[in-house]
Amino acid sequence: MDTLEFLQTILPATGFKYLALFKVGIPYPFHKPYESLEDMAAAIANFNRDPQFSGVFHACGSYQHAYTTIERDGKTKRQYRKPNNWASAKAFWMDLDVGAGYADAGKGYDSKQDAAMAVARFSKAIGWPQPMLVSSGYGVHAYWPLTVAVKHGSWTKCASLLKACAALQGLRADPTRSADFASILRPVGAVNRKNPDAPKKVRVLCAAKRLMDPRSLFDALKAYAAEHDVTSAPESLGALTAHLQGEGLNADLTAHLPYSNAPVDANIMADKCKQVGAMRNTAGDVNYEHWRGVVGLLTHSENGRALAEDWSSERAST
Predict the structure, then answer these.
(1) Residues 128, 212: contact at Cβ < 8 Å?
(2) How far apart are CA 131 and CA 140, in angstroms?
(3) At residue 112, what are phi and psi to the nearest 5 degrees?
(4) Whole-prediction pTM value?
């Protein structure tokens, strides 16, 4: 499967689609919007050949506009993958990490074969067809491509339940990707230069046998969830979810720390800590690891969930 066929399989034909481009030495991406999948595929090939770009990613959904704007400090700032610009998606997806370190930590698999087998078992358990599997270079991406694009609200509802079912099954997929409409992943045909001395091409490991009807997938998932008493919370801010309650996204950051029951004022933390202050003062316009660490602290603060949503309102999804 070449790049264009891949894009046509997993992205809507209508709306704006993004490439997220990382330049060498710059930790945040530049966005390029495309309405034409043909133009997008050609651009991926061109950016692959340009040595100034260390990573080429595609946004997994489509967007209403080429960009939106926000006024801040008297300046107009462009925004791209924000919720007010979401349109539709034509696939569900998961990101599985591979390597001894991930496997030993319980966050991934020893090999791509192990990851593929785990996804196959999960798909069978929930009554879904086998997905398309893509080697991202070092990990595995799973896509369930759809016959038609679905609006972002319906997608998020189904993806949130899919994520909850994966957790029940023990599938070691990255929880920050499975139900995040704003996700970016590496497209087929791109080159993964995580190790510059050993670049790896992103390629299809196993194509899906057919496109899938979204209603049938959701019905099967609801039946599985009802049988196993699985519920999911709405994901209004992508990765910011019900994980803020107890075990979840930030458990690995906080589980080993002894906390008292004394109330914690997050704003006092923000006044005294530059990292927390930057998160508050920019409404989350920080990199992912910065955001993730502060959200971990907010889980132990008064009104932590509400503050986490407020302090994430301008976060650039990565």
Answers:
(1) yes
(2) 11
(3) -65, -35
(4) 0.74
Owner of token pair 């979810």: 241
The label of the residue with tokens 């990573």 reads 55
pLDDT (average), residues 80-102: 95
Residues 6+ apart with CB under 8 A from 4: 37, 38, 41
Contacts of 135 (CB under 8 A, 6+ apart): 112, 200, 202, 203, 204, 205
Whole-number Cα distances in Å, 205 to 14, 121, 211: 27, 17, 17
What is the radius of gyration, based on Cα positions, of the chain?
Answer: 19
Cα gap 137→193, rounded to integer Å? 9
> Of 281, 236, 292, which Cα lies nearest the Cα of 84?
236
The encoded tokens of residue 277 equal: 């202050």
Whole-Å CA distances, 83 to 80, 237, 315: 9, 7, 11
The set of residues, in sequence order, having a beta carbon less than 8 Å from that of 315 and lying 6+ positions away, is 237, 283, 284, 285, 286, 291
Indicate if the pLDDT at residue 138 is higher than 80.
Answer: yes
Asked if 239 contacts 182 with a C-beta cutoff of 8 angstroms, the reply is no
Q: What is the DSSP string of 152-199?
A: HHHHHHHHHHHHHHHHHHT----TTTTT-TT-EEPPTT-EE-SSTTS-
Closest by CA to 89, choosing from 161, 21, 156, is: 156
How many helices, marked H, and strands, marked E, lie in the chain?
11, 13
Residue with tokens 């074969």: 113
| DSSP of 93-121 | EEEEEESHHHHHTTSEESSHHHHHHHHHH
pLDDT digits (tens, 9 = 90+) for 268-308: 788 778 888 888 888 877 777 788 788 778 877 777 777 78
The CA angle 205-209-210, to the nearest 5 degrees, is 130
What does the block give as tokens for 126?
Answer: 């929930």
Q: Strand 88-98 and strand 108-109: pairing?
A: parallel
